[in-house]
Design a protein that fits this description.
The chain is mainly alpha-helical. It is built from five helices and two strands, in the order H-E-E-H-H-H-H. The protein binds zinc ion (2 copies). The site of one zinc ion (ZN) has 5 residues, from strand 1 and helix 2.
Length: 114
Amino acid sequence: MVLRRLMRANTKEARLLGLQLGPPPPAAVGPEPCPLCGRPLVAGLSIDEHHLVPRSQGGKEKFLVHRICHQKIHQTIPEKELARRYHTWEALSEHPEIRAFISWVKKRPPEFMP
Ligand SMILES: [Zn+2]
Ligand SMILES: [Zn+2]
């Protein structure tokens, strides 16, 4: 799992450097569910990566989440607030708008994309 994540990160870096590595490998999906909504993560386009501490604030650790969950986080909370207050999954899930979103998205299939 960790190795797979590393490989993905390296591939992304290689692409940024303009290296040709062929198509990206399928998204890594482990036994862990999405840390925001708790639904399973299914390989493919419905998943994304989130930095709990935004990269612009020096954050490095990233987590696999649903794309829809990720979009909701960034639509709802500005980067500075993420860094200052919402840098744990617990804090995020207590945000009123995020909490409402979680109870809505929990009823959707794991690959759901709007
Ligand atoms: Zn999710
Ligand atoms: Zn993010």
